[in-house]
Amino acid sequence: MATETLLTHKGVPVPAVTGWSVEREMTPRVIGFADASLDLRARDPWKVLWRLWTLGRGKGEPEFKAVHPLRQRRAALYTLCQVCDQPAEDEERGTLFVLGANGTAGLGAIQDLELASEPPVHPRCAIEAIARCPHLRNGHVAARVQWPVPWGVRGTRYGLTRSWPKQRPEQVNVSYASEDRRLVLADRVLIELHGCQPVDLAEEARCAQLAPPERDLTQTTACERSEPA
């Protein structure tokens, strides 16, 4: 599928999933859209209803704290690097995921079956992101993941009343297998991580810097031979 190119703003690389100041939410206040064609366009293959946002990547100012729902969903479902928007899947070593500190819960190694809203990333792009993203500078962990599987969504859950859906204030995680997915207004895809091997991101970046632009399949570098730490 076609992918977008890496953008910069005033010399600073801007991750592909980042929102921009000209982009605005356009979701109607009540879900279960009365307009059948709008309802159809706003739902994914699992019949989950998604927040609607305008598209204006590269226009205005980047809003680094904002994540654009559509671009996050695309990167998560198609295993694209969240920074450069290029394919990030690595069947041989496992796809690289870097997760940031989450509130006051602490930060441990990425575990099997953990749910992540962060799409994968290339080693070079991860180093760039850590240097500029406060969320990652406050702490991060990295792992090579053999099987990243779309699990479900995160969003606002609505309860049904006799007349109108009633919004509940908390964000919830809902599996694609759950019937409750029809009651969620989603803004993130959640990826279930299988076959996680913790890695040293600095070593991953060093190996990426050493890798030749075009790989010679008759030779293997020391970095490729070594097992992840």
Short description:
This protein is an alpha+beta fold and 229 residues long. It has helices at residues 36-41, 69-78, 123-132, 134-137, 201-210, 222-225, and strands at residues 7-9, 12-14, 18-20, 49-50, 62-67, 95-100, 114-116, 140-160, 165-175, 184-198. Residues 212-229 have low confidence and may be disordered.
Features:
single chain, 229 residues, alpha+beta, six-stranded mixed beta sheet, two-stranded antiparallel sheet, 6 helices, 19% helix, globular, disordered C terminus
What can you tell me about this protein's structure?
The chain is an alpha+beta fold. Helix content is 19%, strand content 32%. Strands 4, 6, 7, 8, 9 and 10 form a six-stranded mixed beta sheet that branches. Strands 1-2 form a two-stranded antiparallel ribbon. Helix 3 packs across helix 5 (201-210). The radius of gyration is 19 Å and the shape is globular.
Topology (elements, then pairings):
Elements: E1 7-9, E2 12-14, E3 18-20, H1 36-41, E4 49-50, E5 62-67, H2 69-78, E6 95-100, E7 114-116, H3 123-132, H4 134-137, E8 140-160, E9 165-175, E10 184-198, H5 201-210, H6 222-225
Parallel strand pairs: 4-10
Antiparallel strand pairs: 1-2, 3-5, 6-8, 7-10, 8-9, 8-10
Helix pairs in contact: 3-5
